[in-house]
Structures
1.
Amino acid sequence: MPTPERTSTEQIIGAAVRLLEDGGPAAVTMQAVANAVGVKAPSLYKRVRDRDALLRLVGEQAADDLTRRLEAASGRLDDALLAFRRFGRERPEAFRLLFTSLVDADRLAATSAPVLRVTEAVVGPAHALDAARLLTAWATGFVTMELAGAFRLGGDLDEAYRYGITHLVGSLRTAQEPERPAHGS
Amino acid sequence: MPTPERTSTEQIIGAAVRLLEDGGPAAVTMQAVANAVGVKAPSLYKRVRDRDALLRLVGEQAADDLTRRLEAASGRLDDALLAFRRFGRERPEAFRLLFTSLVDADRLAATSAPVLRVTEAVVGPAHALDAARLLTAWATGFVTMELAGAFRLGGDLDEAYRYGITHLVGSLRTAQEPERPAHGS
DNA sequence: ACCTGAACACCGTTCAAGT
DNA sequence: ACCTGAACACCGTTCAAGT
């Protein structure tokens, strides 16, 4: 005899997201999640394979969210990079989760697509991939180090990030097409 | 009545390092560590406060190891950056652990000191900090993304890393001293 | 068809008792 | 002074039994 569903996968993911951001990965307990959605822990296994699968879902939702933000800001390269850091600062635990190898690598890589498109407009197709990797790697590392508290030598981090953007985007503009040495067209 | 010590903090850290690299953080169980050093789990608490403290010790040893490698390669900026990536590929779990907020931030920051010194020689003292942050952030992000499998669009990663080094170091060289506009000396 | 109580294996941690 | 067995709280997960 059917029983009405008392929760949903979306609700479960939502609860996990909140617990994660509030208390880190250790706080994402099957029990805590179940409690948050008004159900007992064993019931969660009807919707998610296990805890790792739930964390993967959380990570993939975060990746998709980040991708959406980057797309929305993809008109200007610096806006996209600022949006990237903003995401990391708003959702530090989700950001860290992205690079945990729990999250599907393709879903994570999709994050770079919007950046790749804007980059192409700046440096041309030949070096778009290298340039996009340079930018995404830098931004990823900056936010990772910032969240880890690795920047200890003072200075305004907002300014440091802007310095990086200006420097990198500027250098990409001048360093285009290194293999068409001098003979015109 | 004294009892001979059957293990040591160093041995315990060593076992934890091995377990970490072989099976990730989840494999670093107090039981597994105790077993590896020939003791029962409760005995570990004579030497380390708890599991988190043990992981912190592992992370700090990794940070010191990385710092030593960077110092050894600090003659040339590109050597230092190559050594940084080599460390990440040799000890991916330790590398990830570095940015876990478990590790003391000062100890992590100390890692950047050798890079800062070399950078200073390239761009001068005024922008050494900005430049060092640019480089360490990029390298950190590159290795983080590489380990997470985030580079999915093909291409040789060794080459991509070299591209980054060449581009970044080159751009730093030409972008020096932006605030001494034109009036000599 | 979903939900739950009971149970199991495993983990971190404490502590009294051994030597 | 270090080590251990026993115990406790907590966690992930399974499954038979409920509705």
2.
Amino acid sequence: MRPGETSSTGHTVIDRKPAISAEERMQTFHARLKERALKSTGQRDDIARVFFELGHHISAEELYAEVKKINPHVGYATIYRTLRLLKECSLLYERHFDEGQARYEAVGERHHDHFICEKCGRIIEFENAAIERMQNIVARDLGVTLTRHKMELYGTCSDCMAQRGA
Amino acid sequence: MRPGETSSTGHTVIDRKPAISAEERMQTFHARLKERALKSTGQRDDIARVFFELGHHISAEELYAEVKKINPHVGYATIYRTLRLLKECSLLYERHFDEGQARYEAVGERHHDHFICEKCGRIIEFENAAIERMQNIVARDLGVTLTRHKMELYGTCSDCMAQRGA
DNA sequence: TTCCCTGCAAAAGTTTTGCACTACT
DNA sequence: AGTAGTGCAAAACTTTTGCAGGGAA
């Protein structure tokens, strides 16, 4: 099954492509800064653009390395401060998979969950409406109000399974 | 709904009580140590007993404070080393909720998931067979093999909602 | 008697913060 | 000009490790 396809069950959607371009996200970022009377700076633009262009599930360390390539003067503190700012602007999510460090992901239109390959580290995003519905039923059974939820599957991806067989 | 009860959907089981006593767990611990030719020590016993008696979702910091009460001489390093040992003996799980620190939980008979109250920090365990089944279907759709999975719901528990209303 | 275990302190890894300086608006 | 932003280094926080001494088998 390829990205975007639907499975035989009609429920699981895999690695849906983002509908928003990096350029659009940058414009939103600038608008949010203006709303808050915060400043647009070269560093913030460099960091945000690299983040939006590189895509999902990047760590602060990886982002730092990438930003250094186009602006070697940027410090780690600014990376973290800009990540926090983007989070406060509702432009990124901070994820904590089972590693020491956080990973960051641009906010998209839809909720999705993650599969993480324990062999190669590959992360697959998927949506499954049935699971979303079940989570709401559980919340009702628990008598609680949900603000967010997370589901993570860990295991071996098809590539790594093929490799192991080879 | 009270702990152990089943919901109207017949699926969600909440805060099932552990069927294994702390004393039984200690015996298992000693057996596992013997198998591995590792030593039984006063510190290990103190830490393991406090852990098994205090129950689930304790942090290393909390465990350290509790163990200090009955054995003030114990160091942080021994806490962490014993937690690692208990994990290697398959006697505890290490969980990483959305906090800086890990939380530890005695291994039980059944898989369950967690709801975490963002107001008071309360953690509710629940089982839902339908969600378990859906996870396996998603894994099949993704073409991956699962080793483990995690589902966490975050929100406000009923107590905190009542309090807010009051 | 052997060598595993322990405590202490230091190190490691990630993220945050204090401070003087820089640069947006 | 005024204030928010930046880089650097140091601190904070959780967890791990080196080492010398102590204790279980």
